[in-house]
Amino acid sequence: MKKMKYVLVTGGVVSGLGKGVTASSIGLLLKACGLRVTSIKIDPYLNSDAGTMSPFEHGEVFVLDDGGEVDLDLGNYERFLDVKLTRDNNITTGKIYQYVLDKERRGDYLGKTVQVVPHITDAIQEWIERVAMIPVDGKEGPPDVCVIELGGTIGDIESMPFIEALGQFSYCVGAGNFCLIHVSLVPVLNVVGEQKTKPTQHSVRGLRGLGLTPNILACRSTTALDENVKEKLSQFCHVSAENIITLYDVPNIWHIPLLLRDQKAHEAIFKVLNLLGTAKEPSLKEWTARAEICDTLHEPVRVALVGKYTGLSDSYLSVLKALLHASVACRKKLVVDWIAASDLEDVTETENLDAYKAAWKLLKGADAVLVPGGFGDRGVQGKILAAKYARENGIPFLGICLGMQIAVIEYARSVLGLKDANSTEFDSNTRNPCVIFMPEGSKTHMGGTMRLGSRRTYFQVMDCKSVKLYGNRRFIDERHRHRYEVNPDMVAHLENAGLSFTGKDETGCRMEIVELHDHPYYIGAQFHPEFKSRPGKPSALFLGLIAAACGQLDAVLQGCESREKVSCDIGNCLNSNKKVYQKNVNGYATKPANIIGDAAIYSYCNGVHS
Ligand code: GLN
To answer: Where is the Glutamine amidotransferase domain (predicted)?
Structure first.
């Protein structure tokens, strides 16, 4: 049986080096060489999963098909590798201890003293071995390579058991099956402009002291490393100069896999993993074209993102990525205008007039309005005002999860005249509860008790924008994360007043998509379409939003209709449609010539993903 190969990515010096993006890029590069790649993210915190963590502190909670609420890095892996991971692909200290303690309670340890070494460290190794075998690319049989990213920075107390386990693991799987890539920082001191190697030297020493030997160094720096700096690192860190890669600053993260390829990171990895000669040269044509096109876009599409966690962009990472995928497909430069929902409210007008004015100015200047998911009542009134503004002024609007519930509340208040219409999440005593707690939820336990993961939505009519954007499918599967739902008792009332529920669950009682027909684009979804958006396959509802914002919606919808007539894949679209990309002498795309046609092709290619 062929042996699984492991690539471990660790980080040193400081956090926030982009270790996750680096690890995803390594995975993508290996995939481009013809290997089947999976990934595991290790988060050494005690939480069982990311579900109970605040997006303010930790960034968004990413949701998987199986309902796993996981670290946002798994989103990077899914997007870069175009795979579907499972909840077990995210290991946390909490999960490992829970597993070991459950075993202890069952008596599985047969009277032994249960200890970090060997019981926790063995559990970590068994977990990695088991999960690495799970196919994640839709094909059968185990993948070829598993990229493991160890969260945190070398030296953290809480990651020690993982380091110990990984040291043992590298020994057990044997040389030739384990490659360690250490991501580090080479700062440039402004005064002298010199690239400093000392922090990297220290962190590699720390790594070695813990029993792990790096095979490759990936150094973050503002500019490419000088040859003499590489030599110095090589000498002090005992890593050959060709195994030292510079990850210098690039205009967008899609360039990272290209940087790695250009510096032959794949060859260095293959040498360590004994794969030289078996894997092919990386083919990244489509990826390269997209990275380059992204840099050339200049005509803006302005999206007002009206949310609660506007202070930390990672809080809405997948939403931002989905907007980007759609904007690139429409050949527009995405500009996100962050609006703290509460700034739109009347109280802010009295308390902080400047903030109020600035927020409304941004909202009024936007080509599209997006209200993302969220919890709690802060800013709800501001979100309602944003939805109302978009509805009344014909501005393309997308409401996601809470954003959809907001759209329903707003409609009930403004059109049905039910002034106190509300969600029971915000007002448990409202006389007009148009959004209510779902019967299966738990009010006492917060972790893992929502309606989570992939659920099916059936389209109710064939003549609406959402069904067309999804390629006229009868049903779609999208990911969920919510406790409340539109009150089924109020649906008829709302529908009679013109709000259409165009997508429902299999029972027909749970509302999934809401739409206004007499509006250029006004859609709300109870699910989170952002989690399944991919660079080359923008999510249908995001594509619709951006296309509507820049006058391309008809073309996109037509493209969806005529898709049976067209036969192409995205790579062919990019490479064969000469009209779309005019290349300059360097081979860089210079201007998108056939914007509408191109967006239509994108929608054809991508409308059909469930
Ligand atoms: N708070 C709402 C609910 O629980 C919306 C959740 C969300 O937007 N993810 O239903």
So the answer is: 313-546
Index of the ligand 1 atom closest to the CA of residue 450: 4
Quote the ligand 1 centre to 440 CA distance (angstroms): 14
The verdict on the CB of residue 481 being under 6 Å from ligand 1 is: yes
Could you report the per-residue pLDDT of 349-394, keeping only the tens digit for each?
999 999 999 999 999 999 999 999 999 888 999 999 999 999 999 9
Contacts of 205 (CB under 8 A, 6+ apart): none
Asked if residue 402 has its Cβ within 6 Å of ligand 1, the reply is: yes
Q: Between the CA of residue 376 and those of 319, 426, 430, what are the distances in Å? A: 19, 7, 16
Active site residues: 401, 528, 530
Q: Rounded to two decimals, what is the model's pTM?
A: 0.90
Residue positions counted in the chain? 610
Q: Which residues of the chain have pLDDT under 70?
A: 1, 309-311, 562-610
Q: Is 602 left (phi over 0), alpha (psi -120 to 50) or beta?
A: alpha
- Beta-bridged to residue 336, according to DSSP, are 303
CB 573 within 8 A of CB 286: no
Among residues 381, 306, 388, 391, the alpha carbon closest in space to that of 348 is found at 381
Q: Does residue 541 contact residue 466 with C-beta atoms inside 8 Å?
A: yes
Which stretches of 30-130 are assigned E, i.e. beta strand?
Answer: 37-43, 62-63, 69-70, 90-92
| Cβ-contact 368, 545 below 8 angstroms | yes
- Give the distance, in angstroms, between the CA of residue 12 and the centroid of all CA atoms in the same chain: 24
- Tell me if 505 CB under 6 Å of ligand 1: no
- For the chain, count helices (H), then strands (E): 22, 25
Separation CA 493–CA 411 (nearest Å): 11
3-state helix, strand, coil in the chain (%, to 5): 45, 20, 35
C-beta separation of 338 from 305 below 8 A: yes
User: Which domains, and CATH codes, for the chain?
Assistant: 5-291 (3.40.50.300), 297-562 (3.40.50.880)
Render pLDDT for 262-307 as a digit per residue (tens, 0 to 9).
999 999 999 999 998 888 899 999 999 999 999 999 999 999 999 9
Give the type of residue at 157.
I
**Sequence-separated (6 or more) residues with CB below 8 Å from residue 278:** 270
CB 74 near ligand 1, within 6 Å: no
Place of tokens 């968004």: 60
CA of 491 to the centre of ligand 1 (A): 19
pLDDT, tens digit (0-9, with 9 covering 90-100), for 494-543: 999 999 999 999 999 999 999 999 999 999 999 999 999 999 999 999 99
Those residues with Cβ within 8 angstroms of residue 1's Cβ, 6 or more apart along the chain or in another chain: none
What are the phi and psi torsion angles at 585 (to 5°)?
A: -60, -25
